[in-house]
């Protein structure tokens, strides 16, 4: 059986599934339940500095968007960091770590951007026996208005500075949590690395308004008729997170920097994809908040069974395997030609491929053949765009079939060139370089 | 009283049983159920369901409107094509129309519940009394319609929308035609047929004159003289006879009368039924009569059909429904003689049949089924009185694609025309299309002097 044991910057856990710093990890009660359910580790809900705790709104904190059958697709929140007393949290963390020595327990921290604030809290956290700290430079709502959270994460210089303080004042491993509310995720990652971080974790949540109430014209979630942007998460953000993880994983400047992958992970499959793009482990929140802690059992068995089926023994066997395949557009092979192919036995004749192609693309799918309703690809028109595959309700009914080298591409009237060729050498590119011999 | 006492008796069941037995066959979807059901629609292009609908309702659009929280807009999409969309949602054999064509059958052998979704939308609009249509300015034209059934009502509504005046003549006491008198009670509960008639007529400009029978109280020639156009939307008033010994015995009844009586009864406790009932026929009428006889407390109900299962007009769904209620369906049996005792039905002798060279042939082997009541459901006929020289064929009125008869200014549609499908929804389509044809004919004529002034 596959070995799911995880060692992330020296922090060991029985599996790579951690709960992210968020509502599910705010109290010993919840974390105990999570560990009982099988979670490998938790990042405790973010601690603030000593003193009166933050307060939360007393109306709705969460908003959502739904897909078919009200399946939750995207989620957002305007909850702040822990609103419990710092010492209550620290006491509970210490107790939980004693109760569950084999699980990872990370303290998430957000204090003002001054050296003394960090210097003051780090020894208190260290005393709990926590395995590491995560710097919350990510939360985009509320705390950012006070100069913390994503307000720090959006300024690489601040990231570097704070990380440096943390490395100076604690022996614990430092994970820097990044905000996606930025144009180039590589910049904060590089800054974190320059400051000496042991790892980065990403993504935190994305600025968002989930909906507008069309009776009151209040944004959702609505607090007394008004709303504020909250942090977006859940299945809908996964593609954004995957890209950001990949950007850091393949950036020469941060290559090899451990990454804890976060963002819409709902199933074992999502987790495996993050790990393949370079994540050393994953953190989950929305899926647990949607379905409860039991989902980790599906994740553990799913990942393990897939690894067994594929002959992967440890997480190291799969980590980063997809990274070399992530490239820039300009290096994509322009001589790779595919055509859509419709499996007529699988086709249920909904006509969606036809209308999508006819109305919005390349007029490459028939509606009638010999007067009979029949959907078939017109190879002369098909550019291989994949829209039909994406809109077809039947899995594997339409597939993109690569044309073998030498085959006639009926659209261009030319045989498929066997050689790899990309934009950098294309004759239409004014900046084209001579192909290297 | 019970189910075991012989004879044709009312009140076989406790009162509560009647209520339970004749409750809604397909209870309405609540909002959540409707959203779940609507989510299954793929919003097909050139959707097969829409093609299969005789009234061509834009089904993908109305379902998407439900899914996006707009049941009122959805109802308008339905009513635009079929003003009797509420009844059609209840009585259409969807399993052989839209739902049979649904691509989800290919995907997972379970269609989108189009009929129930249509009911959800139309019920919502009718509950809120949403009126989507206003009459155009009066055209000064007057049209007579014969028959206040689905064809006549659909025709009248569309004509009223165009600003014409309509007078409907109907032989019965209530409007609705088969919707009121000819549909199993559990398919149209809570007096829905009359509510729908009221909803349709509320547009205004439509007068209904009840108790007026063509050929008895007036002739087609009378109407042609008094009105600018005539639409004939008559039903099938005649019932085929068995032409066998004992047919006139007490206990031999027409299934359509039984079905109509059930619909007109509030509690059904007053409707008598036999202990052992035999229904002769293989169509929807046979099923409706047999199932309801069982629901009234008959101990034993048998449908006897002279051909095979595959020849039955009743859909598979209807046959299954009958079987689930405990009705036995027997095939290849034709009636030979009704056994009579003291003037009352005692049983029926039937003869086995077979297909010989494609022709139905009795085998000579007979058997007797004990029965105290026999329902005839072997087909209805059009009783064509007062139509003058109107061209007929096979006992039905001949019409073209627009519903025009052989006489100028006279249109027809519904069960009375040749090529009709004996379906509410087809009748609606024919009535609606005839109205459009009439309107076009008016437009092609010179405008009326009064309209110009």
Automatic annotation (TrEMBL), chain A:
Gene3D superfamilies: 3.30.70.20, Aldolase class I (3.20.20.70). Keywords: Iron, Iron-sulfur, Metal-binding, Oxidoreductase. The keyword Amino-acid biosynthesis does not apply. Residues 338-367, 373-403 form the 4Fe-4S ferredoxin-type domain. GO terms for molecular function: dihydropyrimidine dehydrogenase (NAD+) activity. Transmembrane segments: none annotated. Pfam families: DHO_dh, Fer4_21. Its EC number is 1.3.1.1. Residues 415-437 are annotated as: Disordered. SUPFAM superfamilies: 4Fe-4S ferredoxins (SSF54862), FMN-linked oxidoreductases (SSF51395). InterPro entries: 4Fe4S_Fe-S-bd, 4Fe4S_Fe_S_CS, Aldolase_TIM, Dihydroorotate_DH_cat. It catalyses: 5,6-dihydrouracil + NAD(+) = uracil + NADH + H(+); 5,6-dihydrothymine + NAD(+) = thymine + NADH + H(+). The keyword Chaperone does not apply. Involved in pyrimidine base degradation. Catalyzes physiologically the reduction of uracil to 5,6-dihydrouracil (DHU) by using NADH as a specific cosubstrate. It also catalyzes the reverse reaction and the reduction of thymine to 5,6-dihydrothymine (DHT). Belongs to the dihydropyrimidine dehydrogenase family. Heterotetramer of 2 PreA and 2 PreT subunits. This is dihydrouracil dehydrogenase (NAD(+)). It comes from Sinorhizobium kostiense. The lineage of its organism: Bacteria, Pseudomonadati, Pseudomonadota, Alphaproteobacteria, Hyphomicrobiales.
From TrEMBL, chain B:
One of its GO terms (molecular function) is glutamate synthase (NADH) activity. InterPro entries: DPD_II, FAD/NAD-bd_sf, FAD/NAD-binding_dom, Helical_ferredxn. The keyword Oxidoreductase applies. Coiled coil: none annotated. Its EC number is 1.3.1.1. The keyword Oxidoreductase applies. Gene3D superfamilies: Alpha-helical ferredoxin, FAD/NAD(P)-binding domain. It catalyses: 5,6-dihydrouracil + NAD(+) = uracil + NADH + H(+); 5,6-dihydrothymine + NAD(+) = thymine + NADH + H(+). Residues 20-129 form the Dihydroprymidine dehydrogenase domain. Keywords: Oxidoreductase. Residues 142-431 form the FAD/NAD(P)-binding domain. Heterotetramer of 2 PreA and 2 PreT subunits. Involved in pyrimidine base degradation. Catalyzes physiologically the reduction of uracil to 5,6-dihydrouracil (DHU) by using NADH as a specific cosubstrate. It also catalyzes the reverse reaction and the reduction of thymine to 5,6-dihydrothymine (DHT). This is dihydrouracil dehydrogenase (NAD(+)).
